[in-house]
Design brief:
Layout lengths: L2 H15 L2 H11 L5 E2 H8 L3 H13 L3 E5 L10 E5 L11 H16 L3 H16 L11 H15 L3 E6 L2 E6 L5 H6 L1 H18 L4 E11 L2 E8 L1
Antiparallel strand pairs: 1-3, 2-3, 4-5, 5-7, 6-7
Helix pairs in contact: 1-4, 2-4, 3-4, 6-9
Length: 229
């Protein structure tokens, strides 16, 4: 393949994965045995089928998913089915950050006495950096703080969904950007994410306490439990 074509493919890959919705769709397809139609994916992520179809087409052009026609013996228009492409056929650039995360997480596990504690502290430092703390003496409601935290998580690509149960708030994280590494290096990766949450809560003034982070409640779902003070 020419250098020009390789560059075009890399650009397509970066554009495809730059959007959190497309990353979410790719994770859903990765976690599915077989293929899914647009309507099923639309129902899972809560977007119009036409919007989902456009995102899938971008992923298909980048070589991240494949499209096929539903086998059909009865009259009517056959449905289009989508599945994630085998990882070995994807552009190496699409896995670059996963590889870097694997290298760093494995090194921390091998050389630190308590990699989870170090990872959480690193996450706290970055979490404090990711939000804007309140002005001195300013009154602020915990809902504003949770809103900032959820917005920051969305920017990171977690596809968060907030649900409140009395004084407890559950933030459902539908799309961990480093899910593949977290499956084998949870003590590092998940501790960083827990630290990010706690660092954000501390910087925002302490109206919210991050109780815990439950990884992989479902294949593509982690849940952070917050409480208000």
């Amino acid at each position: 393949m020419s250098t020009h074509l390789i560059g075009e493919r890399r650009d397509l890959t970066y554009r495809a994965l730059a959007d959190p919705t497309r990353r979410h769709l790719l994770r859903l397809l990765d976690d599915t045995d077989g293929a899914l139609e647009v309507s099923a994916l639309s129902a899972q992520i809560g977007l119009h089928p036409n919007t989902v179809r456009a995102h899938l087409e971008m992923l298909r052009q980048a070589g991240m998913v494949t499209r096929s026609t539903e086998p059909r013996s009865r009259p009517g228009r056959p449905k289009m089915l989508y599945r994630s492409a085998p990882r070995r056929t994807r552009s190496p650039g699409s896995e670059g950050y996963q590889f870097l995360a694997e290298v760093l997480a494995s090194c921390m596990q091998a050389h630190l006495d308590d990699p989870a504690a170090v990872a959480e502290e690193a996450g706290r430092a970055w979490g404090r950096y990711m939000v804007d703390g309140p002005e001195p003496y300013a009154h602020h409601d915990f809902t504003d703080d949770v809103g900032q935290m959820v917005a920051a998580l969305a920017e990171l690509g977690f596809a968060p969904e907030e649900r409140q149960h009395g004084s407890r708030i559950l933030v459902r994280l539908h799309d961990c950007p480093f899910r593949e590494v977290a499956r084998t290096r949870a003590d590092v990766v998940c501790s960083i994410h827990l630290g990010i949450l706690r660092g954000m809560a501390e910087e925002l003034g302490g109206s919210v306490t991050v109780e815990n982070l439950q990884p992989f409640v479902e294949p593509s779902l982690c849940i952070a439990s917050l409480s208000t003070t």
